[in-house]
Description:
The structure holds three protein chains of three kinds. By secondary structure, chain B is an alpha+beta fold. Chain B has helices at residues 25-32, 88-95, 105-118, 125-131, 142-169; strands at 3-9, 12-18, 51-54, 57-60, 73-75. In chain B, strands 2-1-5-3-4 form a five-stranded mixed β-sheet, with helices on one face. In chain B, helix 2 packs antiparallel against helix 5. Chain C folds into three domains: 9-35 and 454-596, Aldehyde Oxidoreductase, domain 4 (2-Layer Sandwich), CATH 3.30.365.10; 38-143 and 194-282, Aldehyde oxidase/xanthine dehydrogenase, molybdopterin binding domain (Aldehyde Oxidoreductase, domain 4, 2-Layer Sandwich), CATH 3.30.365; 370-451 and 602-748, Aldehyde oxidase/xanthine dehydrogenase, molybdopterin binding domain (Aldehyde Oxidoreductase, domain 4). In chain C, strands 3-5-1-13-10-11-12 form a seven-stranded mixed β-sheet, sandwiched between helices. In chain C, strand 23 and strand 24 (570-576) form a beta hairpin. The two termini of chain C are 41 Å apart. At the B-C interface, helix 1, helix 2, helix 3, helix 4 and helix 5 of B face helix 1, helix 3 and helix 14 of C.
Amino acid sequence: MNRFDYVRPASVAEAVAAGSEPGSAFLGAGTNLLDLMKVGVARPGRVIDVTRLPGLDRIEWLPDGGVRIGAMVRNSDLAYDERFSRSFPAVAEALLSGASAQLRNAATVGGNLMQHTRCAYFHDLASACNRRVPGSGCDALEGENRLHAVLGWSEHCIATHPSDFCVPLVALDAVVEVEGPHGAREIAIDRLHALPGATPEQETALAPGELIVALRLPADAAAFSRNARYLKLRERTSYAFAVVSAAAMLEVEGGTILRARVALGGVAAKPWRAPEAEAALEGAAPTAQAFAKAAGLALAEAQPSGDNAFKIELARRIVARALTLASEGTPAAMPALPASPFSTKIGANHVA
Amino acid sequence: MSLSISLAINGQPLDVALDDPRVTLLDLLRERLFLTGTKKGCDRGQCGACTVLVDGRRINSCLALAASLDRAEITTIEGLAEGETLHPVQAAFIAHDGFQCGYCTPGQIMSAVGLILEGHAGDDPERVRELMSGNICRCAAYKGITEAVLEAQKAIADKSGAEQNRRDAA
Amino acid sequence: MSPETVSSPRYVRHGSNAGQPLTRRDGVLKVTGRATYAADNHPEGMLYAVMAGSRIARGRVVSLNVAAAKAHRGVVEVLTPENRPPLAHDPDQKMPPFGFRVEVLQDDTVRYVNQPVAMVIAETLEAATEGATLLDPQYDVEEARTGLESGERFQAEAVGVGAPPRTAYGDIEAGLAQAARVTEVDYVTPAQYHNAMETHAVVAEWDGDHVTLDMPNQAMALSAASYAAYFGIPVENVLIRSPFLGGGFGSKAILNGPQLLAIIAARMLRRPVKLALARTQMFGPVGHRGGTWQKLRIGTDGEGRLTALHHHALAETSTFDEFIEPSASVSLTLYASPAILVEHEGLRLNVGTPGPMRAPGAASGSVALEAAMDEAAEANGMDPLEFRLANYAETEPGTGRPFSSKALRECYAEGAKRFGWSGRPLEPRRMRDENGFLVGWGMGTAFFHCPHFPAEARATLRADGTALVETGGADMGQGAWTALAQIGAEALGLDPEQVEIHSGLSSLPDGGVAGGSAHTASAGLALHNAGEDAIGKLSELATADPASPLFGAGNIGVVARGGRLYRLDDETRGESYAEILTRAGRREVVGTAKAARDPAVTEAYAMFSHGAVFAEVKVDPDLGQVRVSRLVGAFAAGRIINPRLVRSQYYGGMIWGISFALHEEAITDKRTGRIMNADLAGYHVPVNADVPSVEAILIPEEDAHVNPLGVKGVGEIAITGTVGAIANAVWHATGVRVRRFPIHIEDLLVG
């Protein structure tokens, strides 16, 4: 790790000013940034510690029923907040399926949104990576890419976004509040993370110096609370990134789906919202056929980026399963193994 | 540049002058304060061997910059026993053979203490297993670890229940 | 509760506590953080070393930016091929008896990824780490041999540690020709890395030409001799202190380049130096289990009996040394067949030299054999257990030697009963649980050989009635301190609480290698003999002393029990050790012993631990995720010294089996030879949630031949059998035979 200047600003304005200097990086808990600094992917000359900024560690309920979450709220505090998990159970489940209890205790909401890909070629300084060094190439394209993207990738980058948290967030139209050198603005989560295109190094919509100060979920996101799930396939039962994951949320009335939300994780460089699947579900009955159709639509554009065609079929299946589970109802208590298929009743409709 | 931070480590206040901002909490404990009970297994938040409590919460000390922890209260494995009396989690780990080589054990124990403080596992072994999954044990003493956590949690609850009863009676 | 093993009375000497499930002696130290591992040491004036490892697999280092590294504040020195002091032993020559060639900056050649290319020494860990980054090595890259396609196949001269690569009994082609059915299958196992939780570390401190090495070490005496040879100093000038190892699994028994370089640096700089490898550096210079490509041909007659068993294994090794997984050798032991052919071939790749990793050969070979046996059982329409019983080897197949003991039938029976094996449908994909998950049951036979290493020990009886037993053994988690103290106490007729044990120092009597699951038997027998020697000397004192009630009992004999000696023919006459020693004016009496196996026993008997493992898996029918919902293993390993510790060894081994079957693999980029998952986030080993239920049954077994203690090994056996059991259960759940490990989600996405 390179030597750096450690700065602890007293206010958001100070932080933004400091962060606007080239070579600066904002430090939340450090669970991602420090890791990247240790492997040499990040070498900031100046580290701006934003963990003590006043006012960023609160969960505030807005008059309209929405919620505003300070960027420095810790993942576990949010997931275990009683009202939050009751209102947005799929978000809580996604949070609790990520990383480990220790990391969730440290990791901040803002940091989770800003985490970088886990692509091994991004982490390996000896490999070509357009995301890390623009124009250097992408060694993942012809490399070990079994777990790489199947949606929204380009020949310049096939990395995936690793967050669980962001998957239900994108489905629920969450918005981040940003403070920057040119003032405050809001960015929809769906626009926060960028697809690679020809500029994979442009990972987010944030400009230099911009700092996420809060995350907001709109009031109507709570309308899905009775039928909301997050499901995540892993290569071990816990403490692993998703092979693929899906958030599914339904608002059902009288045997008809009024509104549906579907998003996927582990499939693209951003949390992947599936609006066509949602549209197909709205007005339909919550049946296996409807779910299968929606799952098909969600993956309609998918293409293998390498040795990963299986992920397309797997993603289809997990969308269908997540919708099935959502239609069966949000569990009364958080499952013992959050988001794991082994925590769920999979029902009799799955015939071998 | 020297950074000064104040910590309380296992109840002892301590002012630390850091000559290098890169020092992690783990390396501060091990290499500068010689509290070597906390172990380094991966240095990247991938194994849990370095788990300590910061302000009562379990975290990976390898991914925490010491400089950012000014005024924090830190509890390490060295601060758990009271004199020769083991903490219930420590005693239960011995009784259930919840370790073999012992290297991940300080992290497992601190994680278990954190888990019990968090109070989300109840008496469900599956929840304990899930919430202890951030601590890798290559010797794979998981069965004993899970049993030890459940037993220690019960022992702690029984003890605090008994104390509550005494207070209620008084 | 599992039944406790009842030791044969024949072996319960002097009525001591061996056989009791004592908790670990080092338990309090380990749960309080007071157990000191190598990197916990911090001598005055210590410097930090950080290795710079190669990022290419083959080629040359053409430049290192030493100036940049040295310019970094705190960096003291950079060790490179330019300035590395000479060694007294050529590192390109093998170090006898078991040592490999090591890479210690002898030149600029690179032969694998993570080979040391330099070492940076600094005042702080932070400075050394950054210094290593700033070196920014530039390379001349040559095309690397990275896999089956590009590797160089060769005929190995030996496999494992000196075993023959080819063994044939009977006529294999005739056996196959006369078979009613031939099951022919290929299995692939990946490269795996030990990844003990403690990375390889050393704190080296020189004093003139004496060196003290705090390092985790499974073979202290051998290592001390090797270090002495490298540095050209007498072996007694090397002191290795290894009181605790943070896991070893075979990787800490053999010298490696990085640790040697740190010791070189300490000598060069005249200051103590600490090195602890980064986790990612554990993938290369410190050994691994090489990948294998195995083919089995199993011929069976109309009744499901083997007519031929042909097992061929191609195993990877490095381009510059040989360690070949003796995988196919597993087929020499378990199943009776008139014709058996076992063959090995080597494959040279640009990897670090593989080495013994928990159950070398046996683990990878057992996977293939047990899965192939399951396929053969299926082909013969037989229950897998029934099929194995039909081919039960009453004597060692091929040689006809008797087994020194073999309670495998009991393992099968007890394991099957506990698991509830009966009623298992023969056909796959027939069982579902209440939640709709596919359920499968599989089984495998476990076994591991019983080597015995020469060892020495000392036992001291003290005038206060306590004792000290000493042997340079290694406790890497198996519980050596505890079990060896129990054996020592038994030999001395004392309670374990009265016996202190000193171990983990190379200056103690050589406790042999903590490997091959042989440590308890090897060091234990030496301790046992040393105890007998001490008791013998004590009885000489007593029986020659007219003031002793034992006076004159020399010809009759005495028995030692509970800290007292008694006349063999009259137990009303006896006195305490303390009384004997005090009256003789002695502070202590010291017994010493060496122990080794009688070569005649090796000739006469086949000696193995045995077991049977039963696995239940649940598989999501759509999503392919697998969970091992139950594991039941029943093992017979001779006399059990401490059932609590032995059970933990079995649990650990079985969970390593889960890991082998479902998780562990090094993923190599075929273009560069770099392992792309060289950390604990990418290289998956099981976490707690992967192990909902594991059970170990200890089957009583007496063995009058394996060694005078009747003790066999327990450390490695439980991986064998388990991997096959899980793979077979996955087939039984899904109908899919996965023949490449670990089993992936996509392998099971059927329909």
